[in-house]
TrEMBL record, chains A, B:
<feature type="domain" description="GST C-terminal">
    <location>
        <begin position="89"/>
        <end position="214"/>
    </location>
</feature>
<protein>
    <recommendedName>
        <fullName>Probable glutathione S-transferase</fullName>
        <ecNumber>2.5.1.18</ecNumber>
    </recommendedName>
</protein>
<dbReference type="GO" id="GO:0004364">
    <property type="term" value="F:glutathione transferase activity"/>
</dbReference>
<dbReference type="InterPro" id="IPR004045">
    <property type="entry name" value="Glutathione_S-Trfase_N"/>
</dbReference>
<dbReference type="Pfam" id="PF00043">
    <property type="entry name" value="GST_C"/>
</dbReference>
<feature type="domain" description="GST N-terminal">
    <location>
        <begin position="5"/>
        <end position="84"/>
    </location>
</feature>
<dbReference type="InterPro" id="IPR045074">
    <property type="entry name" value="GST_C_Tau"/>
</dbReference>
<dbReference type="InterPro" id="IPR036249">
    <property type="entry name" value="Thioredoxin-like_sf"/>
</dbReference>
<dbReference type="InterPro" id="IPR004046">
    <property type="entry name" value="GST_C"/>
</dbReference>
<dbReference type="InterPro" id="IPR036282">
    <property type="entry name" value="Glutathione-S-Trfase_C_sf"/>
</dbReference>
<keyword id="KW-0808">Transferase</keyword>
<dbReference type="Pfam" id="PF02798">
    <property type="entry name" value="GST_N"/>
</dbReference>
<dbReference type="InterPro" id="IPR045073">
    <property type="entry name" value="Omega/Tau-like"/>
</dbReference>
<dbReference type="InterPro" id="IPR010987">
    <property type="entry name" value="Glutathione-S-Trfase_C-like"/>
</dbReference>
<dbReference type="GO" id="GO:0006749">
    <property type="term" value="P:glutathione metabolic process"/>
</dbReference>
<comment type="similarity">
    <text>Belongs to the GST superfamily. HSP26 family.</text>
</comment>
<dbReference type="InterPro" id="IPR040079">
    <property type="entry name" value="Glutathione_S-Trfase"/>
</dbReference>
């Protein structure tokens, strides 16, 4: 399907899951071809490389497709071993995987994302889930530049959406989840993350475009999440 | 907290997540102490070793606690490398992780488990999710003894609940998800799995006890999942 040694990333411009993979490839200095997918009108390519879920991102390495951003990050780290994203020690790796899952489930899916896609009591519950989860994340980050200490890694990329997308979702949903005074560790991390040379160099979509896109998603998804 | 070289498993008698870890330890021939936890009245030990989620299983190895069954299986495989549970090739590992996540999300959480904890239209939707997911799993298993070919591994342990627990949930919820005629690959796998010497040697709870426990869970959880 592909040329030898080729790296392709099939993505969608505003997806925070795709953004993680872009960051990881940039950190490792891996050159790749980016292919924009219309996730609302899926191409034959996407059905072919990810028939099970049909989601982006999919990394296609030498013709072999790998879906799901946390799995892609581990794959990248196993194939290109320089500048490691995960620690080598099995216990530390397990902790990183635990917090990655925690961030994706509690801070993202059942927290921030559900806040964006709901209203009323359901939204209030999701706000609480997100805040309680951030309290636990705060304990992990307090006094450190990044999750792993001084260098950026797997958990920072998983958490990345908190730095630039959560404020957009809060603005659209008209709620407050991330209070910098309550979460000084996360507030400091946000600055460190956005000022990291690789993260700074990767262009994010403009605030206006993100506001427009997620405002529309909120309107479409509220009735679906309510059922 | 613990003696050197000690392996402890904190679990709950009927949890399919705990069962996976018991199987993995048995396959590797690792001796361990099992500690039964009352998950409805959590001990100080559990709050100490898993403050973030408070869930079982937790593997405590030389005093270091590792929660979440998929993460524990990877940890066990990284520390005790004989009789590998995951393949060594990065692409094959990524595929195993993808299907593990797929099984846990689609076949378990949003499928079978939600079927047990819901009724009416919500239940009908969950039945469909489970069946559509099993269709994709069937393609993976057709013509093979286990997911990885001839030997038991990570995905078989993740899928294990389908072999002994799904029939119980179906009976309680009075629905049919797993039709052996429609899923001959999974039907053959179920036999291979339950007849594997390690799986056969690990005692499962009795059918009566499981029926009684999950009947009660269904009654308690229906209103919670409906809100």
């Amino acid at each position: 399907m592909e040329n030898s040694q080729s790296v392709r990333l099939v993505g969608f411009w505003v997806s925070p899951y795709v953004q993680r993979v872009k960051w990881a490839l940039k950190i490792k200095g891996i050159e790749y071809e980016y292919i924009e997918e219309d996730i609302f009108n899926r191409s034959p390519l996407l059905s072919q490389i990810n028939p099970a879920s049909g989601k982006v991102p999919v990394l296609v390495h030498d013709g072999k497709p790998i879906p799901e951003s946390p799995i892609i990050l581990e794959y990248i780290d196993e194939v290109w071993k320089h500048i490691p994203l995960l620690p080598q020690d099995p216990f530390e790796r397990a902790q990183v995987r635990f917090w990655g899952k925690f961030l994706d489930e509690k801070v993202f899916d059942l927290g921030s994302w559900l806040v964006l896609c709901s209203e009323g009591e359901k939204q209030a519950r999701a706000v609480n889930v997100a805040i309680e989860a951030l309290e636990k994340v705060e304990e992990q980050l307090r006094g450190k530049s990044f999750f792993g200490g001084d260098t950026i890694g797997y958990l920072d990329l998983i958490m990345g959406f908190v730095s630039y997308l959560l404020p957009i979702w809060e603005e659209i949903a008209q709620v407050k989840i991330f209070d910098p005074l309550k979460f000084p560790g996360i507030a400091a991390w946000t600055k460190n993350f956005l000022n990291h040379e690789v993260i700074k160099a990767e262009n994010l979509p403009s605030k206006d475009e993100m506001l427009r896109y997620f405002q529309w998603r909120r309107e479409v998804l509220i009735p679906i999440y309510a059922s």
